[in-house]
Write a structure and sequence with these properties.
Length: 105
């Protein structure tokens, strides 16, 4: 499945990603600069923050209490904010677009 990251400066990075890998891992594997993933995906750093259009919401797993708590601390939270380490690629997410914030911390 394809995931597209759009950096804050408009740079578009399109990746053919393996199923079951998290969107954070996919970004890090491919050197996407706007995602850091400092905690390695344990939902404890919030440096994998991205904005995912609400049209994808029905296909995403619900936000856990821990993720919601971590999202409260990101620099520019929005309704569409998610932590990319909590989202695993699967065929349903083929074509997903993740907009990256200006900064992660
Ligand atoms: Fe740390 Fe996602 S990688 S919260």
């Amino acid at each position: 499945p394809i995931v597209t990251f759009i950096e804050h400066d408009g740079t578009v990075i399109r990746i053919d990603a393996p199923n079951q890998r998290s969107l954070m891992q996919i970004a890090v594997d491919n050197g996407v600069p706007g995602i850091l993933g400092d905690c390695g995906g344990s939902c404890s750093c919030a440096t994998c923050h991205g904005y995912i259009d609400t049209s994808w919401a029905p296909r995403l797993p619900p936000i856990s209490e821990t993720e919601a708590f971590m999202l409260e601390g990101v620099p520019e939270p929005r309704e569409t904010s998610r932590l990319c380490c909590q989202l695993r690629m699967n065929p349903d997410l083929d074509g997903i677009v993740v907009h990256l914030p200006q900064e992660q911390v």
